[in-house]
Design a protein that fits this description.
218 residues; mainly alpha; two-stranded antiparallel sheet; 8 helices; globular; disordered N terminus
Length: 218
């Protein structure tokens, strides 16, 4: 596997995962947690942070060992690395944010099966040096965190009329914004699909408008 680090713009690679290949809004991958844990802002943020941590660490690890991985067994090795970092994440969350882990722990375990993490290990980290691989992992992870934060912000605010903002590892402050009756469907699974669809359409509309304006300016 050859290095292509010299031809990679780190800023572009970072923005690629946030905008052009956003896991939720552009690729529509790993939608399970975007529906299951985003009825609460605090849970959505911590789930996004967990994926960001795993994505970055997996990319770094795969990049470091890429030259000694036998191509025929690369996928099992990638899965072993992913499961190892997911286990580390589970232990850290269980130790420091047990209240969050009790609610999202099942979905933390499912990070092992996230297609986006395996895809970046195969397509990018295994072919590039550590710095570009880390930038790629940060971009994809931040993009996922951004998507979950926006979705959970929208769902909790509309569905409950509150925002559960983390103020510490195991504490949160609830702000109440809506005095009228909240739209309760938004905190149910059906509301999750609706919120993801609306925000996905909005994200892609804004992105397309920005791309057109950039093209006209050049």
């Amino acid at each position: 596997m050859s290095d292509t680090a010299s031809s990679i713009n780190l800023k572009d690679q970072l923005l690629n995962g946030i905008i052009k290949e956003n896991t939720i809004f552009k690729l529509a991958l790993s939608l399970c947690p975007s529906i299951a844990v985003t009825n609460n802002l605090k849970n959505g943020i911590f789930m996004g942070l967990a994926v960001l941590f795993v994505q970055v660490m997996v990319n770094i690890t795969i990049s470091l060992i890429r030259k000694v991985i036998q191509p025929k067994v690369r996928l099992p090795i990638f899965m072993l690395v992913i499961s190892g970092w997911v286990t580390v994440t589970q232990l850290l969350m269980a130790a420091f944010v047990p209240d969050v882990y009790s609610k999202v722990g099942l979905y933390i375990a499912l990070i092992v099966a996230f297609a986006s993490i395996l895809a970046r290990a195969e397509m990018f980290a295994s072919k590039n040096s550590v710095v570009p691989a880390m930038a790629d992992g940060m971009g994809m992870g931040i993009g996922f965190l951004f998507a979950l934060t926006v979705i959970s912000f929208f769902r909790e605010l509309v569905g409950k009329g509150t925002l559960t903002v983390p103020t510490g590892l195991s504490t949160a402050h609830i702000f109440t914004f809506i005095n009228t009756k909240p739209v309760l469907i938004m905190v149910l699974p059906a509301g999750g699909f609706l919120a993801v669809g609306i925000l996905m359409a909005l994200f892609n509309w804004i992105n397309s408008r920005y791309a057109k304006s950039s093209a006209h300016s050049h």
